[in-house]
Amino acid sequence: MAPSRGPEPLARALHTTLENHKGPVHVARYARGTAKYVLTGGQDRTVRLWNPTLGTEIKAYSAHGYEVLSISVAHDNTKFISSGGDRSVFLWDVTTGNTLRRISAHLAKINVVEFNADATVVASGSYDSTVKLWDLRSPNRQPIQALEEARDSVQALYVGSSRIMSGSVDGHVRTYDLRKGELRTDYIGHPVTSVVPTQDESTYLVMTLDGHVRLMDAFTGKLLNDFSGHTHASYRCRACFGHGEASIVAGDENGAVWAWDLLDAKPLQPNPPPKVHHKVITWTEHHPAEAGELITASADGTVKVWRYPASGS
Amino acid sequence: MSAGTARLKRRLDEQGINYTSKKAAENYCLIGTPLPPLEKKDANEFVPIWKQDVRDEKGRRRLHGAFTGGFSAGYFNTVGSKEGWTPSTFVSSRADRAKQKASRPEDYMDEEDLAELRENQIMAGVKQQQEQQQGVFGVTQPELAQGDPEQDSIAASIQRALMPPLEDSPGVRLLKKMGWRPGQGVGPRVTWRTRKIQDLLAAGKSIDGVDVDALDDDEEAKRHMYPPRDTVVPRFSMKSDSYGLGYTSAPGLVESLGQKRPEVKGPTLAAGFGLGALNEAEDDDIDVYDSASRADRTYMPYDSTRDADDGANFSRNKSNHKAVTTTQQKFSNGIIVLSGFVLSPEPVQKDQWFPIPEVPSGWKPDPRRVWQNDLNVEKSAASTSTREASSRRQKLTADERGAILGEEPLPSTRSVFDYLSKEDRERIEHAAAGLLPSAPESTPPPVEAPSAPSSLPYTAPHIAVAALKGFMPFANDLAKRERYVAYLRSQSTPDHPELLPPKLPGQTSEAYHRELSDYSKSAAIFKPVSGAMANRFTTAAVVDSGPTAIEGLHQPTHAPETAPVSQQEGEREKEAPRREEEEVQSSKAHAARTGMYGALTREIAPWQPSRLLCKRFGVKDPNPDITTDAPMPGASRNQPQSQSTAGGDTWKPEEALAEADLQTATGSTSAGPSSATTGRRDLENIGLGEDESQGRDTLTYVRPSMDIFKAIFASDDEDEDENENGGGEPEEGRPEDPPREMAMADVIAAPAHSRVHDTTTYEPKTVDRPPAGSETVDIATFKPVFVPRAERRTQKSKDNDKDKKDGRGKDNKKKVKSIVSFEDDEEGAALVIAPQAEKDRARKKKKRRKEDKRVTNVEAAGGDEDAEMWVEKAPPQVVTSFVDAPPAADEGAQLKAALAPPPVSSSSTQVQRTEGPPRGRKRAIDFL
């Protein structure tokens, strides 16, 4: 849908609830490609693979010794990586459920991991305030490079085709431009919990702990839009773009899913949104292709799949 | 021993003797202890740790390694067969089922296990006995009686009947032999009444409120005596807290509300990867989102209030609510309590609020009135204070006690207050000023009569002197301070009582006395501490004083109050630039706060992605020159690209060569690449990215003309040829003439490159140089002239012929500046050195020959004169030999050469050892 016609309303009809996790769910990611599957990771030290349409759990991956805080799926859906409290990055084979590799060199829990485009490099951002880049092609135990600029825990990462963006609790978003060989540090001023750029990487969305989601210009570092209204003060929440990047979706700490118009920064109806989770929504992710699908993971132990009422049935 | 055995074995092996045969092992020893047989292992023989194995008392191997069965696994060690357990043959038990006995665990145990079992049984036996003893002496019965109130007596008796009879402990057996029966306590028989009391006590009740006599209702029972009850063994519960004995902590908030105290327990960790015994359930592992829905919640991060109206509320709370909310509660003023809320039985303690004082109409602030008031208060306080003082007489300080007892006051030099910062002192003073008038800290010494002027407060002179030097209190009351100082002066000079501050007009003698005693106390307080203590304090750098709220309407006090205010302002002024600095520093933060994102909040810095990262991302390296590759562990980051053969401080031959080559071959007078731009080149900075001159010498290297190499290296071959031809030509120095001169030019040029060099080394050269052959060499423009090889050869052969003819070359003597001169021989001057020189030369020659070969190889490989074909390592080595050779010509240089051996010593020393001496010897023979 063209953004000019305004954003589509958010999918707010509950399609299924994925609730096999015991304890909070920290992360829920769509698979790549057509994104027919969902991977979730939670406090119960497992990563679970779901079919969001049917709401069934396909597989549970358990090797973590601590909570799973982050998951990233490889471009070909054959592998995924997860990380968490046990200070190591696990590379999993999706079908067998084995860990192919366990990379442990961080000093503290790893908040976020990301693959690069062709799953040759893994970036891991940790509480030890470093981002480390790992080569998956070689069994080298040392990282390719460690990005140690952050002064506090790294909470968000984005690995693009030629840039790596990291969001840290020190209130900075750092863009490591490989092509230019420069580091652009944008000071947001509040602990950053998520950094999600647009597909063209010209803007990025920053969610900070002051209860604001900001759309920043990646070239100049200027503020393009500011979205607020939700409650966000303590936990890692994630804001993402809605379908066609026409809207902003974010879950808040009350368990409500907020949506804003990208252009006029007004919250979409209903405003305020209803409370759909009992606890803080830890992860919000919009379906990469489908217009009306959205998943939210919450600390109440459930992952909810939202669709339009029509498409749901 | 073992070494000897091994040697003997080897020798026997060599001789072809089979020492394992019986014959060899036969013992012929008649006297003494025979040596242990070769085959049998000596018990004390050293066995490396990997050859050692663990055997049990029967000599069986017990450990087989993790992959070969582990500890005591079955490979024909412990169990029936080589295959493992002995397969038992099937025997039909159909016929004799009755005989079939169940296999016990003991059937599968080996003797070790059985031994262990037996040990355990012994242990268990002892334990059982202990238990029995406890049981007999009264634990069981009262427990059965009191522990389970629900269990009726029939059940108890049944239980007792069903319970297996306990075996008697030795003590019980002894008692039984003495006529004691279980159930009867130990001791003489007691009356019914006593027994009742005992029963009560055993049941844990107190006998205070019970009418014991009322219990004896049975007349018949009173007539008999009864065995006493078993003594209750007191059971002590382990003390698990750190409170004092008998202390029961007050119930916490949760318990006082009638709820169970939540048991804090850590999450149970799954056995995950990488989790060892050291991994604890840390705070990280506690669910941060955890809420009250769990009984064992530890803290409420966010939903304590919000979830109250939530649909999914917690059952526990609900039940509580229901119980209460059924009855409508009302506040005291009649308002009905909202549904879902409970009125707390305890009234909330209100914050203390002070009413705003009513300002009378037409009131004007007049501080003087207040001060007047203060003075009045002070007066009245003064009158009351003595009364208070007398009531507090028993509160004596150590000093006062000491004064009463007539102790010598402790010597002191400095006061604690000297170490306090100014602000702190002021604060204390304020506090003191507020306190002293109304309530003096302690009483004046009681020995003094309050009104007697003769017994005015006394301060020891040394204290007074010290206090005079130390900190001065009463900074906010200058008049008072003056009086204080006067008092101190008077006390420091006890002979002059007239120095005492006079009584103020209108001041009562009591007030005066009190004032003076205040001074005396102040002097005691503010006197400096003794030296030992003094070192332990440092002045505070920063005073951390938060904002202090003064309750009530602000009332202006005495005039000196203005001083601190101005000081505060001063502080503020001081802080202002600091704050400004911070502001400048955090302009970024400011911009972010005001939403001015953009250039202000953005910092751009160069960043070098790793080359591998660029490769993985398919991006061209933005700065290909810089490498940020993570260094391999163990490898140093600074990989020297060119091998420097000499030490950091020593003269570097490759530089000299490069320069000399540049100057000789191209005639350029520009300074050498390394000497001019970078002061030092050594292993630390060579080959680094910052080194601008890196690789420049390879790029700018101009290959010297072929003649140089020929001149240097070809000559040796010729020499070699001559030697091999058996010419016995001792004069090998001569053909090296051109290179030697070259080298000399280098060496002499070296000091010009600010290389420290011992010039004395070269003196002999210049001295030795025959005036005819050597026209003065201009170093700057010096250019060796080379004679073509063929020509030279012919010339040399001619010389050789000449030499052969007359045995010694007189021409050579003139040309060659060599110590190996036969002139010297004749004169007998340098005979001592000569052979060494010969040796040395031989050494060098050998080396040179080697390098010749290398260089010619290089030349062969890079036949063209392309600079890049030059292996960078080659020049230094060439040069070392090149440089080494000429110094052989003189004594000093030779010494130097000996002191600083060439770095390529591994080969050269080899040469020295093997080739040098024989040749030298041969030479000597030739010479003599």
Automatic annotation (TrEMBL), chain A:
GO terms for cellular component: catalytic step 2 spliceosome; cytoplasm. It is found in: Cytoplasm. Gene3D superfamilies: YVTN repeat-like/Quinoprotein amine dehydrogenase. Belongs to the WD repeat MORG1 family. One of its GO terms (biological process) is mRNA splicing, via spliceosome. This is Nuclear mRNA splicing protein. WD repeats lie at residues 18-60, 61-102, 103-144, 294-313. Its main location: cytoplasm. It comes from the Eukaryota. Keywords: Cytoplasm, Repeat, WD repeat. Pfam families: WD40.
TrEMBL record, chain B:
Residues 715-724 have a biased composition (Acidic residues). GO terms for biological process: mRNA processing. GO terms for molecular function: RNA binding. Signal peptide: none annotated. InterPro entries: DUF1604 (IPR011666), G_patch_dom (IPR000467). Residues 300-321, 434-453, 549-595, 616-650, 662-698, 711-816, 834-871, 885-928 are annotated as: Disordered. Residues 636-647 have a biased composition (Polar residues). Residues 569-581, 731-740, 755-768, 789-810 have a biased composition (Basic and acidic residues). This is G-patch domain-containing protein. It comes from Lactarius akahatsu. The lineage of its organism: Eukaryota, Fungi, Dikarya, Basidiomycota, Agaricomycotina.
